[in-house]
Amino acid sequence: MHRKQEALRTLMNLNAAKTLKAAAANFHVQDTKAEWRLQQWHTRYLKAATNYAFFCEQTEEENQKVARTIHEKEGLEARKAALRGLQDATHKRREATAKARSKTKELNTKKAVSAHEDKQKKLIQLMANKARLERLHSYPQATEDLIGFVVDASTGKGIEQVNIKSKCPFDTYNTVTKTSDSTGLSKFHLVKGITGPRGYRCYLTYTKEGFIPLRFRVLIHRARTDAIFRQATLMPKLPAPPKYRIVMQYGTQPADLDSHLQLFVGNKKVDISGHLGNDPHFTYTDKGSADAFPFATLDMNVNKGYGPQTHSIHELQEGSYGYYVKNFDYHFSDNIKFSKSDARVFVYEGNTLKHRFAIRNAQGSPTTVWQVFNIKCHKNSGALACQVNAIGTYVAEMPTSPDVMDTLGEKA
Q1: For residue 352, how many other CB atoms are within 10 A of its CB?
Q2: Are 403 and 323 within one domain?
Q3: Residue 147 sits in the same domain as residue 248
Q4: Full-model pTM
Q5: Do residues 165 and 219 make contact, with C-beta atoms less than 8 angstroms apart?
Q6: Are residues 247 and 351 in the same domain?
Q7: Are residues 379 and 293 in the same domain?
Q8: Are 270 and 258 in contact (CB under 8 A)?
Q9: pLDDT interval class at 409 (50, 70, 90)
Q10: Angle at CA of residue 296, ends 290 and 300, nearest 5°
Q11: Neighbours of 297 (CB within 10 A)
């Protein structure tokens, strides 16, 4: 209906355009748009009449045929679109598969190269180890038993069932301490516990539940006897340990070594040791105090050989701490014997062994005093910060002031 009305309307407008053109000619009126207007309405009429004739004057069968044709074309276009979508999806899938395959191949290649490199490295390492072992076996060898005992740093009493491991260049040996004997010591005997080329070292490790593990080295050399003696002092773990715990152990000669913990806090000078000094500027104590100044104590003082001598710093003070070991038997044992006393100092921060010092590494000519380390404490943003500084040198006498001291490396 709409197409018919549109066709009639455009026909009327076309006839009107013809009438205007004829009137202009009859009355000699110039109409420059007459031809253009006639052409425009003629075109519109043809389009409207064609649409009307195509859609409205067709038979039902022809209309159905047109509808089927349109439907078939629409279906064809839909199938074409679906096919294009399928082709695009297939292309993307193939592209993704190719990328994944390429990445997998690349990863496999990298793994193969890495595995080959690891295999080569292991082979080279095995060859190097074999060559090293052959070289070490060619050196002069020494074999000694390892004997000794283990004590508690806080009580000086023996500790039973301590696991002892000696790791030497060729082999590793294990044993445990036996039940304490009449001396109160828990001894051990490790057959061939120190073996290997002379000049090399075995590493000794002492462990037991409830105690902080201890580890140090033993030089392999030809001994005068069939056994090498070493003792160990284990520090017990505590639920709330002091800030610092310091342990000194040594051998049998000199028999009496003294460990000194000195404090320089403001104008106060305190020396905590088993033997008291006589400097009038110092306060000397063989016990100290955990609850009042100097908030440091001498917990264990065995000075008849071996030790241990154990200090604790319970509350740190702003200032300086110095730690020294003195040969109190210097009248009977010279400084060379002191340097060979196998004295060792272990510094624990809380329940962790942080620093180890050995007198064999002390610098300078041996004297009666081994200056081991110091601790400097200062305020930093309101909090107290402390630093342990290794000294490791011989000094002529015990210091009387907290002068800044150069630090040397730690070795144990």
Answers
A1: 11
A2: yes
A3: no
A4: 0.69
A5: no
A6: yes
A7: yes
A8: no
A9: very low
A10: 95
A11: 20
